[in-house]
Design goal:
Elements: H1 2-17, H2 22-33, H3 35-43, H4 49-64, H5 71-82
Helix pairs in contact: 1-2, 1-3, 4-5
Length: 95
């Protein structure tokens, strides 16, 4: 919950700013500046993990796409692989 997270961040912030470690203090102040953004996750728990996964999959497909002769074929391959469609039976496979 947001209130518990706020309470935890406040306690941790106090501990970090009273430590004798300057990098820890700097990090604590950076988190303090971003606190509203961090706590907004508890209002709307959305992460960008799925988008990053799709980006990695598209990157993998582009690495395989060096043999494509046109951008149209590359885009078709993206649509095909991203949708999880089965490969056509006429497609040649290297074993």
């Amino acid at each position: 919950r947001r209130a518990w997270a706020k309470k935890f961040l406040d306690k941790w912030f106090w501990w970090a700013t009273h430590s004798r470690l300057q990098p820890m203090r700097n990090f604590a102040w950076m988190l303090r500046r971003k606190e509203e953004n961090i706590l907004s996750y508890f209002k709307m728990p959305i992460s960008n993990g799925s988008v990053e996964g799709l980006n990695n999959k598209a990157k993998m497909i582009s690495h395989r796409a060096y043999g494509f002769r046109s951008a149209k074929n590359y885009i078709r391959n993206l649509y095909h692989c991203m949708a999880g469609l089965p490969e056509p039976k006429i497609m040649h496979k290297f074993v």
